Amino acid sequence: xxxxxxxxxxxxxxxxxxxxxxxxxxxxxxxxxxxxxxxxxxxxxxxxxxxxxxxxxxxxxxxxxxxxxxxxxxxxxxxxxxxxxxxxxxxxxxxxxxxxxxxxxxxxxxxxxxxxxxxxxxxxxxxxxxxxxxxxxxxxxxxxxxxxxxxxxxxxxxxxxxxxxxxxxxxxxxxxxxxxxxxxxxxxxxxxxxxxxxxxxxxxxxxxxxxxxxxxxxxxxxxxxxxxxxxxxxxxxxxxxxxxxxxxxxxxxxxxxxxxxxxxxxxxxxxxxx
Length: 274
Ligand SMILES: [Fe+2]
Hints:
The structure is a single chain. The protein is of the alpha/beta class and 274 residues long. It has one domain (2-264): Purple Acid Phosphatase, chain A, domain 2 (4-Layer Sandwich), CATH 3.60.21. It contains six helices and 15 strands. The strands form four sheets. A six-stranded mixed sheet has the order 4-5-7-9-11-10. A five-stranded mixed sheet has the order 3-2-1-14-15, with no helix packed on it. The protein has a two-stranded parallel sheet with strand order 6-8. One of its GO terms (molecular function) is hydrolase activity. This is Metallophosphoesterase. It holds the Pfam family Metallophos.
C-alpha cells in the first residue's frame, strides 16, 4: 500500500508581502498533480489539517474542486482520501463539506471530529487535536478514552494514527509552544499497549521531521505551500522559508512494515538510468 501525505495547504491564506511567492491553491494543485503522476498510484491520501487558513466555506469548496480537477477518481476512492482538521480549520464545518473524507466512528463523544476507516488491511484513525480558537492542540480525556476503546477493539491489527499537532517536541520553540500541550504521555501509553501502531503522521510544523512515540515512528510532513524556518535557537522568532515543497510517501505492507519517503513536488531532472 502507498500512502501520500499532504498537509497544511492553508487555502485562503493572505500571503501579505509574499504575494506571488506563497500561492496555497496553486501549490496544492501542483502537489495533487505530483500525486497523480507517481509511478505507483497512491492508495490512500492523508490530509493532516490546516486544510484552510480560516475555515471559510469557500476554501473547503476550493479544496474539493482542486481534487475534482486534479484527482478526478477520488470520489470513487481512487485514492481514498482521509482528512482531519487543524488549528486553522473549523473541523465541524470541514466535515460538512468533506463528509466522505472524514468518516465518523459510531461511538465518538459529541464535539469531537475524529475519523476512522480501514483500507487494505490497515486501520486509519484520525485524531482531533483542535482547541477552538487556539493555535495549540490537545487530546482530552474523552478522546483518549475513545481511542483506548477503539485500539482495544483492533487488538492485534495494524493501525496508522494521523493528527494535526504532532505528539512530539521538535526543538523549534515557537512551534512547540503551539504544539500538542496535553495528551502526549497518555497517547504514548496507548500506542505502546496496542503494539501494532505502524506510524503516527502529523502536520502543523511545516517541516519534515521524524520522531517516535510509544515505540511507533512519528512523521511530520512539510506543508504543500510554505515552510517554517528551521532555527533551533530557543529565542528564534517564527519565520517562513520558501523551500521546494514535498509530500510524504509511505509504503506499507503487512510483511515489510512502514518505509517513509519524502518526494519533492517540483520535479528535478531525471530519472536517469544508472
Ligand atoms: Fe499549518
